[in-house]
Amino acid sequence: MKNKKIISGVTLAIILIGMLIYCYADDIYLALHPPKEEHVFKTKPDTMIPQLAQQLGLANTNQMDGLANQAVKVYNHQSQSKNGYFESYIEIPVSQQSRFVSMVFYQKNSKDYYEIPARKLSDTTYYIQTEFFSQRPKTKWRQGVLLSGMLMEYEYFPIQDHFKAKKYHQPKQLLYPSLQLAYPQPMHLIKEKRLKKIVRSERKSQKHEFMGHHLTDFSLADFEHQKQNSIESMYFDYTKIDDGKIQMDFNFTYPLLKKVSYQIAMFSQANGLDDVKNYPLTQTGPKHLSLYFTNHDHNRYETGYYTGYIQRNTPTQSQVSFISKQFFIPKYILKTISYKMKKIDGPRGIYALQLKLNKNERILQARFAVWTARGNQDDLQWYTVNSPNQQGIFEVMIDTRKVHFDGKEIDSLVDVEIDQTGTQRMGEMKDKVSKNRVAMYVNHRGNHQYAPENSLPAFKQTKYEAIETDIHLTADQQWVIMHDDSLDRTSNSRGKLGLFTYQQLLQFRLIGIGEQHYVYAELKIPTLVEFLAICQSKQKIPVIEIKDKEINEAAYQQLVQMVREAGFGLTARFISFHYEPLKVIKQIMPEAAVMYLDKDITVGNIKKAKHLGTRAGLNIKWQNLTYEKVAQAKAAGLQVGAWTVPASQYWQMEQMGVDYITTDD
């Protein structure tokens, strides 16, 4: 009997002890695991706040730790590449320490919801890392933090913002770079029924959020009753941290007053309060504020650690609270993913230069330089693009007809201009492109879109394979360059060119487009020798139009000698509206290529051109050419040229089979 009483007493004692443990579990747990001194939030007077108030010009400012230091903070980092993880760091204030911490993820318009436990790193810091969302790309998720006690009592803190799931890669450990953490498997820390209730409540509140945002209003008198309104949770999205951008969301305990404004002061550790900037928060719900922060205005994209203070401003006072100094912005690193040349239309000589970077933030423009292997970069041409295409690629089109391309290597490089940083070289390339088009392109009187026609600068700026020019004889039988037989239109003098000697012509200067950009000496009337020298240096083909009809034999001999001595005996083209000069040139220089200029192709001029012998042809006004006429001339063994063709008609001329396209474009 005595033993039975002892057993009953022991049993009763065990039951009583169990009940006591059940009732005071949290107190026992905290007694056995006392929280250490809080290391995330400041609870003592903050000496920075008076300095901050003075710097920002805030009147009647006081410290209010209760505004933010009880908030649960979430730092999300969504990685940009494939095959990896989603991670979050969670900061729990000392006053809300719990046995378990987890994050809840759910979809607004779906029944899906999940809970993922967090691993404890310190008394105030927890961490989750999961590849769960990489299996559900392009889905939108809302989130919240769940604090659970030993007896499964819980408190839920919603996060206002949602994120879109991607395929992630292993992220950089921005906040705790030395950690090597295992991957936690998803599991439920509270009962399914409770979790479902939390999610259902959140979905319901979000449906009424818009209405509540517009119906909620308070007078200033109500502010005294709202003075305990504080931030329950903070959310910081680090997805674009490498670009100096952080999304911040704040969830408050009570609806916000419309006549109370909130701002965040941010400054870098490197520059202190000299760098402070104030950013207004935008209300995105009855109890929610948001900010998209960028370091653009902080000392030319200052990197490193940033400190943040939140302000609550009324017409009479400002309350300031420290929120965090863990905003770490890494150094901006720009890398080339690929740089290549892509064929767009081979027969027409159209190619695309494409530059893909690891990021396009801060890029003001990309500049591509293109030149051929011949000519020592004297044919270099720049192409500029200010923004990437829809695929995020900086792309420019190059037309090889507009450079002296001969089927050999094309060289290129690309520079990018970075906002407030400067220019950075991103790539260089050599590529060989086959010359598979038929037509040769000729600059009419040089590149006279940037310099006076038939001037030395116009010849030097030519981008096509050949340069067309016009020659006349002076009074002392010197070959000089000018289109008209009069000085009136293209020079600063008047009179017939043939009445002046070469020495007299040296006192005159050419006039026209862009003349103000060149020194006086560059605008002299050029000689044929000077024209041929430029063709030599730029490796261009000279196309020489003989303007005079009556020429003595000595002048012809001098002309042929100049061309041969310059090395253009087989490559130069002689053209003229007069038949006799072409006939004489072929007699003196049988290897020369000649073309008879006319307005249209006729049976008569086909016959005349054939009589010039081999390497002869017709050069016709482009508007009068047809497929049939070109075919008729080619059937007679003649080459066909077209003069003053606009760029819009290049393709049509090539399709007709035109051999030489002379253009002003």
TrEMBL record:
GP-PDE domain boundaries: 439-665
Example of a GO MF term: phosphoric diester hydrolase activity
Top-level division of the source organism's lineage: Bacteria
GO biological process: lipid metabolic process
Pfam families, sorted: GDPD (PF03009)
InterPro entries: GP_PDE_dom (IPR030395), PLC-like_Pdiesterase_TIM-brl (IPR017946)
Name the record gives this protein: GP-PDE domain-containing protein
Organism: Enterococcus cecorum
